[in-house]
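Incident log, structure service

09:12 report received: a user says their structure output differs between two submissions of the same chain.
09:20 pulled the input from the user's history:
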Amino acid sequence: MNAIPLSQATLDQLPHDVPRPSYDRTVAKVGIVHLGVGGFHRAHQARYLDQLMSQGMALDWGICGVGVLPGDARMAEIMERQDCLYTLVEKHPDNTLTPRVIGSILEYLHVPAGPDAVIERMAHPDIRIVSLTVTEGGYNLDAVTGAFKSDDPDVRHDLEGGEPPRTIFGLVTEALRRRRDRGVPAFTVMSCDNIEGNGHAAQLVFTAYARLADPALAEWIEREVRFPNSMVDRITPGTTDADLAMVRDEFGIDDGWPVVCEPFTQWVLEDSFSAGRPPYQEVGVQVVDDVRPYELMKLRLLNAGHQAIAYFGYLAGYRMAHEACQDPRIAQFLLDYMDLEATPTLDPVPGIDLVSYKHDLVRRFSNPNVRDPLARLCTDSSDRIPKFLLPVIRLQLANGGPMERAAAIIASWARFAEAVDEAGEPITLNDRLADQLHERAVQGGTVFIDNTELFGDLGADQRFVAAYLSALDSLHSVGAKATVDHLLTTR
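09:34 re-ran on a clean worker, output below:
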């Protein structure tokens, strides 16, 4: 099959069994600017909006995607070549592939190529939402205190002024300043990142930055801007060369950056917006008054669950999430962590059967066709662990509950940070604190958890320290699988 290069001009040439935008993208308008256009955004928020637009709704809510980092230049090039179109393929456990060409992203801008163009786009009256998927570390929050880190070099650069902003804080705040000065109403800032109270976190960091730059602007932002909380969920591994070949060979589409994901998707969104929103509820988004129960469920079960299988699995020689989760020992360890340690820390979740949810997670993690690398789950651990797992440990310690499995996950992270697996193969640490983590891990004992920047005072808690050292000693002496076997007997 000769593959058709994907673009607006070639949509009618694509195979008839591949759905594509049924709406006129030339008359659709941009109403949302999204910062951080990765695979997840394109599999999730952009997909929901594409569904709405395909039903004749929200045609004035199209997306202008923004790449923030220098490394986003390749995405900018491909989006320009393909008129911002891309192929989304859902991979089912039974090997079924469900493709769709998504058209809800109408424009793409790259901050390093023109910061002022990005600011002006956000300042335009048509823009009513600025949304974010900038990862857990993108909020510049201290892992222990939760405060905005004003001493970050890029933040200091932006606060000094005189040059285009480098950070999302400088970009968004300047756009809001221009709107205020021009008499344009404020937009909503909608976080879609895996952070507890992500809307509250966004409000904290943007107002903290604005207070440092212009206290009067900070007051205006606090009064006028809404920051809805949300919970987002869809496993979306990075696109590989094999995925490009699959889209070309199976569907006859030459797509420079398709997206692959699992079939499952969920979005729970607080109904708090400054200037309206798309009718997301029409395509399955749960629009609620209080996101917190759903958010804690996802962070402490799914996200922390990924950490539970990631390091143990990698040390044991597995390289894909489904391989680790198809090991009955690791799957049971995951369930034990969720049942005995995480679930007691959760609030009641309206409309959710937690028993089914947890078993569905194991099935989702075990989907062999998603091919989610464990290395992806081990990336940026110093940003993820404090947000996903440490709250469970702290609450269980405070309540006298079990936390041995969570402590063992921390130990598996420390063993992973030694940067060599059980077969003697080197491990690459992809983390902003990689050198520091490695230096502490190789010293052994409690040095790793004595890092107050990440763990606060946990290193002084005798129960936690004893559980951590026990698991770490077991990992060194008998390995990951035997350590998990022992933990399965701990009740």
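09:41 both user submissions now match this output. Likely a transient worker issue. Closing.
09:42 reviewer note: The chain has a mean pLDDT of 97. Residues 12 and 242 are 25 Å apart (CA to CA).
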